[in-house]
Design a protein that fits this description.
alpha+beta; 55% helix; 675 residues; 5-stranded mixed β-sheet; two-stranded antiparallel ribbon; globular; binds zinc ion
Length: 675
């Protein structure tokens, strides 16, 4: 069978052949690609010559190319343009892929060769990038237990098996508890304060469950508007308490024992691999490097943000007193914040939208990329696409050299998952003196145009577009030898720097003047609106900071010490929250038993990254502001030392080379109005 998925696409003229792909092509292509990748690994392990950087480490990085390309096409389609058939294929091929990746990571012959190169690393004349690649390949095995004796290896597999079962169960319990609660309202008076959209949605939920009136649930799209707008305080309390009690009710869905089991197993696993704690194990591969650094970073920020947070809490309490609220509770926070925000700024999102026509915003992002990095975006309609709505561009630099293919897919559709993300169809690398350029894509779910109106974005959508475009620039400007170190292949607490940095331009008059023009009158956005956007963006930032830090510190408490003596999840959590509390504790509620980020998803010992990245982006933007936000020299330094370097050097080294010094939190505190 002639299978388009097995054809290479390396140049601007051959891109992913979407129009020729049929669903029937996927499974045979995966079979062939996995066999090919396995054969490529065999060539490395069967080599009779002594292991060298070139014949082992480099060869390993260039192996599996067909499989990588195929996987990115398939999984991107499964996110952006899926259907039942694709989802079924995904379920079938996922075990094939995990089996293949296990075969590689447990391949002892392969590890022996990698280790033999690693052991000689000090005598090899490697470039910085090559040393990084060697380190990464070696750790890929060692962090997975390759150095352990057979007994310990068996223990490790046992722990891993239990951990994956437990986190699955943790997630199932949270889901079951989320679904188990519903708040039915039949008295219209109790809906007071809620926006029409939320009321309509609640009606639809009630209808779908064959119930009368309106139904609210603990799902975010239902829960958040209710907590933000519903005037009925006792109902807000009821909903908030139900939310906070998830998996903490001593019933069959309780997660307390699971939390304790998970942290104990993670600790054992870390010890087995030679690390003091799970946090030490995780952070070894992050910019922050150690739990001690994360904790001191958090405490330093906490000390600075706390006075502001207390002031804001007082302000909010005083504001709520007018309504007769004697003591502000957790279920009052979002509600009175929203009311106070409205009173202080009266920022009408609808009045902003006419200044943000999608086409203008995209042109704006392109102009900014051109001013900063000399990039030209040319729409090329002949590039093959998976849906007619996808826009396709060829990107070149000032010399006219081809830099990247850029796809942009903006509107919601059936078959596209929620949210916004950046992805790639082909990464970047260099081989035989040729620089093979990347194919980058951003996928969003923005307001669609109607018959009478173009797509007018909310301000939140504008910053989302810039955010994803920042990730895309990281991918497009990549300039490394090895694809596994290219572009956004950097540590978690560094990857959001380019994306969050770019959002800063959305708040600058000089940048907004380039594109924020009324779609009918072409009038630029009024300065006082820009000022209001800026002020509203840092509203109650002290309280927000405290909240984020408290979650990060809770995460660190669970994973940065020995869990042997922990008896009560709730007591342990209260201890960790000491020093960040503003609201009175709710004794029947617990955060940890539903903290899916760290107990179900992959964010354990990583929650601090949100704040960490904010410190970085504020500090970096401060540097841009010193010499003008379009200063070419600053932009060149950013492109040269951060965007083009990917993961070829340690993030702190790259950052310091760009900035001239280490990042510090002053710029963030200033931006947030906390100084
Ligand atoms: Zn991001």
């Amino acid at each position: 069978m002639n299978n388009p998925l097995l054809e290479a696409f390396n140049t601007p003229h051959t891109t992913a052949p979407f129009s020729q792909i049929k669903n029937k092509h996927f499974k045979p292509a995966f079979k062939i690609a996995i066999a090919k990748a396995t054969a490529e690994i065999d060539v490395i392990t069967e080599n009779n010559e002594e292991a060298t950087f070139k014949n082992t480490i480099e060869k390993l990085d260039f192996s599996g190319y067909t499989l990588d390309r195929l996987s990115s096409v398939f999984f991107n389609l499964n996110s952006a343009e899926t259907n039942n058939e694709i989802q079924k294929i995904a379920q079938e091929i996922s075990p094939w892929l995990s089996e293949f990746s296990n075969d590689v990571s447990l391949n002892e012959k392969l590890f022996k060769r990698v280790k033999s190169v690693y052991d000689q690393r000090n005598n090899l004349e490697l470039t910085i990038e090559q040393s990084m690649l060697l380190d990464k390949k070696y750790k890929g095995f060692s962090r997975n237990g390759a150095n352990l004796n057979d007994n310990d290896k068996t223990s490790l597999r046992e722990i891993d098996k239990n951990l994956s079962k437990l986190s699955l169960k943790f997630g199932e319990n949270v889901l079951a508890e989320t679904n188990a609660f519903e708040l039915q309202i039949t008295d219209k008076n109790q809906l007071k304060g809620l926006p029409d959209g939320a009321i309509e949605a609640a009606k639809a939920v009630a209808k779908s469950r064959n119930q009368k009136g309106w139904m609210f649930t603990l799902d975010y799209p239902s829960y958040i508007p209710f907590m933000t707008y519903a005037d009925d305080r006792s109902l807000r309390e009821q909903l908030a308490k139900a939310f906070g009690a998830r998996a903490f009710q001593n019933n069959k869905n309780d997660n307390q024992q699971i939390v304790l089991d998970i942290v104990k197993l993670r600790h054992q696993r870390a010890n087995l691999l030679g690390y003091t704690t799970h946090a030490h194990f995780v952070l070894e591969e992050r910019m922050a490097e150690t739990p001690e650094k994360v904790v001191s970073f958090s405490n330093e920020l906490l000390a600075k943000a706390k006075p502001a947070a207390k002031r804001e809490f007082e302000q909010l309490s005083t504001f709520a007193k007018k309504d007769g609220i004697e003591k502000l509770q957790k279920w009052d926070g979002a509600y009175y914040s929203e009311k106070l925000k409205k009173e202080l700024f009266n920022l009408d999102q609808e009045a902003l939208k006419p200044y943000f026509k999608l086409e203008n915003v995209i042109e704006g992002a392109f102009t900014i990329a051109q001013k900063l990095f000399g990039l030209q975006f040319k729409e090329v309609t002949t590039i093959d696409k998976y849906h007619q709505e996808v826009k396709t561009y060829e990107v070149t630099n000032t010399n006219g050299d081809f830099i990247a293919v850029f796809y942009a897919d903006f509107f919601p559709r059936k078959g596209k998952r929620n949210g916004a993300w950046m992805t790639s169809y082909k990464s970047q690398w260099k081989t035989n003196g040729e620089n093979s350029r990347p194919h980058i894509s951003i996928v969003c779910n923005f307001t669609k145009p109607t018959e009478t109106k173009p797509s007018l974005l909310t301000f939140n959508e504008v910053t989302t577009l810039f955010h994803e475009f920042g990730h895309a620039l990281h991918g497009m400007l990549a300039n490394t030898t090895y694809s596994s170190l290219s572009g956004t292949s950097v540590s978690w607490d560094f990857v959001e720097l380019p994306s969050q940095l770019l959002e800063n331009w959305c708040y600058e008059k000089e940048a907004l003047d380039l594109f924020a023009k009324h779609y009918k009158t072409n009038e630029p956005i009024p300065m006082e609106m820009v000022q209001k956007i800026k002020e509203a963006a840092s509203f109650l930032e002290g309280m927000q900071t405290l909240r984020q830090l408290s979650f990060g510190l809770l995460d660190m408490s669970w994973h940065g010490g020995s869990p042997e003596d922990i008896k009560s999840v709730k007591d342990f959590e209260n201890e960790a929250f000491k020093g960040t509390n503003l609201y009175p504790d709710v004794k029947e509620n617990c955060m940890s038993t539903a903290f899916s980020h760290i107990f179900q998803g992959g964010y354990s010992s990583g929650y601090y990254s949100y704040k960490w990245a904010e410190v970085l982006d504020a500090d970096a933007f401060e540097y841009f502001k010193e010499n003008g936000i379009f200063n070419k020299e600053t932009a060149d330094k950013f492109a040269e030392n951060v965007l083009s370097k990917g993961g070829t050097e340690k993030p702190m080294v790259l950052y310091k080379r760009f900035r001239g010094k280490k990042p510090n939190s002053t710029a963030l505190l200033k931006r947030a109005g906390l100084l």
